[in-house]
Amino acid sequence: MRRTVLFAAMALMGFINMGTAQDASSGDGGSPWQFRLRGIVVTPDESADIEAIGGDASISTAFVPELDISYFFDENWSLELILATTKHDVEAVGTLVGDIDLGHVWLLPPTLTGQYHFTGGDFVPYVGAGLNLTLFYGVDEGPVADDVDYDTAVGYALQGGFDFMLNDKWFLNVDVKKLFLNTDATVNATTALGATVVADVDINPWIFGFGVGVKL
């Protein structure tokens, strides 16, 4: 995992240095930087393999603001860094001991995507793909477990969307992303169940966003 994160950081630095060397811009002779502020809906497409007690995972949908920063190498190619944090309620369902409330957890999933923009008018669609690093924090283990631990995860991201230009500077944005995200969750439930349970959890959220952007 460390090698993957290091590779992503080195790639970002290399792309930015390359763009600077080429005096990159957004295609209109201006700054290569672009910012968007979106409202996003994060809908997990979850499943789990839970040891010993079986069952599946249920993870709630979240609605939060999101900021992204884009750097354009030319009018078509760019890198986008996506920043947001979400809170999700977690439950183990259909286990041998019934449904188990596992409280909630916060996710911090910075995502870096490379994008291709189809230019030629006010309607500017794009596609992208990249890497995601998800950190889990602020864990509330709920009323049953003594403790819940989530492993930091590295996954992949696919993206599609479009910008609609309102003028030379401001635009509207619609964006859809799919993250392929997996984590190992360790549930210490020795008080209630007399055991520690490990689960292999696929979160794999869909992320739907709408917002406004500005070219600097």
Q: How far apart are the termini?
A: 35 Å
Q: Predict the CATH topology.
A: Porin
Within the largest sheet, what's the order of strands? Answer: 1-4-5-8-9-11-12-15
Unreliable residue runs: 1-12, 18-27
Approximate shape = elongated
The proportion of residues forming helix, as a percent range, comes to under 10%
Radius of gyration: 20 Å
Kindly give the count of domains. 1
Task: Please state the average pLDDT score.
Answer: 89
Please name the CATH architecture.
Answer: Beta Barrel
The helix count comes to 1
Order of helices and strands: HEEEEEEEEEEEEEEE
Pfam family, one: OmpW
Organism: Flagellimonas olearia
Protein name: OmpW family protein
Keywords: Signal
Describe this structure in words.
The protein has 216 residues and is mainly β. The protein has a single domain, classed as Porin (Beta Barrel). 9% of the residues lie in helices and 63% in strands. It has an 8-stranded antiparallel β-barrel. A 4-stranded antiparallel sheet has the order 2-14-13-10, with no helix packed on it. It starts with a helix and ends with a strand.
